[in-house]
UniProtKB/TrEMBL annotation, chain A:
<dbReference type="InterPro" id="IPR016174">
    <property type="entry name" value="Di-haem_cyt_TM"/>
</dbReference>
<dbReference type="InterPro" id="IPR036374">
    <property type="entry name" value="OxRdtase_Mopterin-bd_sf"/>
</dbReference>
<feature type="domain" description="Caspase family p10">
    <location>
        <begin position="14"/>
        <end position="27"/>
    </location>
</feature>
<dbReference type="Pfam" id="PF00174">
    <property type="entry name" value="Oxidored_molyb"/>
</dbReference>
<protein>
    <submittedName>
        <fullName>Molybdopterin-dependent oxidoreductase</fullName>
    </submittedName>
</protein>
<feature type="transmembrane region" description="Helical">
    <location>
        <begin position="128"/>
        <end position="147"/>
    </location>
</feature>
<dbReference type="InterPro" id="IPR000572">
    <property type="entry name" value="OxRdtase_Mopterin-bd_dom"/>
</dbReference>
<dbReference type="InterPro" id="IPR008335">
    <property type="entry name" value="Mopterin_OxRdtase_euk"/>
</dbReference>
<keyword id="KW-0472">Membrane</keyword>
<feature type="transmembrane region" description="Helical">
    <location>
        <begin position="21"/>
        <end position="49"/>
    </location>
</feature>
<feature type="transmembrane region" description="Helical">
    <location>
        <begin position="213"/>
        <end position="231"/>
    </location>
</feature>
<keyword id="KW-1133">Transmembrane helix</keyword>
<dbReference type="InterPro" id="IPR002138">
    <property type="entry name" value="Pept_C14_p10"/>
</dbReference>
<feature type="transmembrane region" description="Helical">
    <location>
        <begin position="159"/>
        <end position="177"/>
    </location>
</feature>
<keyword id="KW-0812">Transmembrane</keyword>
<feature type="transmembrane region" description="Helical">
    <location>
        <begin position="87"/>
        <end position="107"/>
    </location>
</feature>
Length: 413, 170
């Protein structure tokens, strides 16, 4: 015989002996630290695109005050974006079990009666909708985007950026309201205190796992996601360990050009007819006019080397590759800019959000910023941007334009 | 802190018309904090909703509802079924040996579903020049290792228990 089960609105409905303020507090404090890092690295990634430099870099022209902190993204250290974006995505993936466990731990409060106890409480519950909806929205769009599953309602950049601000607004309020109590709970329990509060089941089912054991399971989930993801920020054996993550596992090819590719030539619609020695020309425009260069012309200019990674907004990156080509500032000088200005780079690519990208003067002026013709001692492969591509230290992958057709110095539209 | 304000039975009118009781305001400091939070959320929110506002709103609210009212009850029910099955043989704590590998495996499936299910095979191959074939196999392999490891631990535990128990006792 089944005894009459209480409704979810009754505290007696919730039977798990794991629920309680300690479990929730520990998870909450982990998320407080983790989501703060996610938000900061997310804002850094947004700044790394230099959205204020030119409309072609800006996926969110209506950002208004939300871009208040923007700054000129530096070129030092050259692994900066590789680090910040690797942390952003890998940490986000790692925090998924913590987020899910945190939501599980407080679900009785969703149904608690009375639904509204005061005006403040009503507003707090509305704020929780933004917190939970926003958190899940941010994690979901992020996880889908790195798997190239663009099913969300709009372009990823504005959704993830504005969604982050909505989520963060609710997150700050929630953290301010709850953190003091969470810290007190953890301290009290460490001193040997008893579990208390509204989350403790009034008639718990017999335990099958301790609270600490449940926390180990959450940590185990995080660890499993971490070890099957983190390797995609490195080449070689480490990448092999990223078993379930996009751009983890195997390299797309072998040899000098065998490292990871964001968008292949086929995907970008680049045909060999456009990139042949007799058809491809680089158009460089500046103060003194326009120069058209063949690939052979470029090869006759002073060639320089730089060891730089490719770091994608999707969180994967390669180790440093050895690029060789013409310095961007030498190309600027060729058209009358002794002092390197900003540049607009245009690709042969006919479609795609970043077929045109702007680079700031400090990026153009860096001696490691190249229009690369070779990588790892060989000609660029078609997928890596043959006949010529931009490579700039610390810049997000999409600003390292491939299949470059035109450079316009000093004019960004 | 989830401080419940004390019920105020002495309030006039409370006993007669509980439904029409005037809603107390609550802490003014909290109110101020929430007002600031909503102002920022609204500022970003109008930008978030500038495009396909219905789609975005559905995703935003739908994510919370889908999680709280579908995903969570589903996995709770599955977990209860496992515990009940273990309870049927009188050993509820044995549920852990199914629960842990199953939870980890489902977690991986949930996060990497587009790749594992093969939904994005074509775009992944075309964009990244990589094969998406291996994801399902690798997930199954990881799942097999998780359950295999759990079974091994379970057998070891049974053996240890059998050794410690005197043979006469049943």
């Amino acid at each position: 015989m089944r005894d009459r089960r209480p409704l979810p609105t009754s505290p007696g409905f919730w039977r798990s002996p794991v629920r309680g303020s300690w479990f929730t507090s520990v998870l909450g404090l982990v998320l407080l630290a983790g989501i703060t890092v996610l938000f900061v690295t997310g804002l850094l990634s947004y700044a790394a695109y230099n959205p204020n430099l030119s409309p072609v870099n800006d996926q969110t022209p209506g950002k208004g005050l939300l871009g208040f902190y923007l700054f000129a993204w530096p070129t030092h250290p050259h692994w900066l974006y590789r680090l910040t974006q690797g942390v952003h995505v890998t940490l986000g993936i790692t925090l998924i079990p913590v987020l899910l466990a945190k939501l599980w731990s407080v679900v009785p409060r969703l149904f608690a009666l009375p639904p509204v106890r005061s005006v403040t409480h009503a507003l707090e519950r509305l704020s929780l909708l933004l917190l939970v909806g926003g958190g899940l929205f941010e994690f979901t769009t992020g996880v889908l985007n790195i798997q190239l599953d663009y099913v969300f309602p709009g372009s990823f950049y504005p959704l993830h950026f504005y969604g982050a601000w909505v989520f963060f607004a609710a997150f700050v309020a929630h953290a301010a309201l709850k953190t003091p109590a969470a810290v007190r709970t953890v301290r009290r329990m460490r001193a040997g205190g008893e579990e208390e509060g509204d989350l403790v089941a009034p008639r718990p089912a017999p335990p099958t796992v301790s609270r600490r054991g449940a926390l180990w399971l959450v940590g185990g989930g995080s660890l499993l996601l971490f070890v099957t993801s983190a390797g995609r920020s490195f080449d070689g054996l480490l990448r092999q360990t990223a078993l379930l993550t996009p751009h983890g596992g195997a390299e797309p090819g072998s040899g000098p050009g065998g490292f990871q590719v964001n968008k292949t030539a086929a995907y970008a619609g680049i045909t060999p007819a456009e990139t042949r020695a007799d058809t491809w020309r680089l158009t460089v425009t500046g103060r003194t006019g326009t120069v058209r260069l063949t690939r052979a012309d470029l090869e006759r200019m002073a060639l320089h080397s730089a060891a730089l990674p490719i770091a994608c907004v999707e969180g994967w990156s390669t180790s440093d590759q050895w690029w060789r080509g013409v310095r961007l500032r030498d190309l600027a000088a060729l058209v009358g800019h002794g002092d390197p200005p900003d540049v607009l780079v245009e690709s042969l690519q006919a479609h795609g959000a970043f077929r045109r990208a702007a680079l700031r003067a400090d990026q153009v002026g860096d001696p490691r910023s190249l229009l690369a013709l070779y990588v790892n001692g060989e000609d660029l492969t078609p997928d890596h941007g043959h006949p010529a591509r931009v490579i700039v230290p610390a810049a997000p992958g999409v600003l390292n334009t491939k299949w470059v057709a035109r450079l316009t110095f000093g004019e960004l539209r | 802190m989830n401080r419940r304000p004390p019920r105020t039975p002495g309030t006039p009118g409370d006993a007669r018309t509980p439904g029409l009781r005037r809603l107390p305001l609550g802490s003014p400091l909290h109110l101020l904090l929430l007002a600031c939070s909503f102002a920022l959320a609204a500022y970003a929110g109008v930008r978030l909703l500038a495009g396909d506002w219905l789609g975005v709103a559905l995703w935003f609210v739908g994510a919370a509802l889908l999680h709280d009212l579908v995903l969570l009850p589903l996995y709770s029910a599955a977990d209860r079924a496992v515990v009940r099955a273990a309870g049927a043989v009188g050993r509820r704590e044995w549920a852990l040996y199914v629960r842990v590998p199953a939870a980890l495996s489902v977690l991986l499936l949930l996060v990497w579903f587009p790749l594992i299910s093969g939904m994005v095979d074509q775009s992944y191959r075309l964009a990244a020049g990589l094969s998406a074939d291996g994801f399902l196999a690798r997930w199954l392999l990881i799942t097999a290792v998780l359950f295999g490891g759990s079974a091994l631990l379970f057998l070891l535990r049974l053996r240890r228990a059998a050794k410690e128990r005197p043979p006469a006792v049943h």
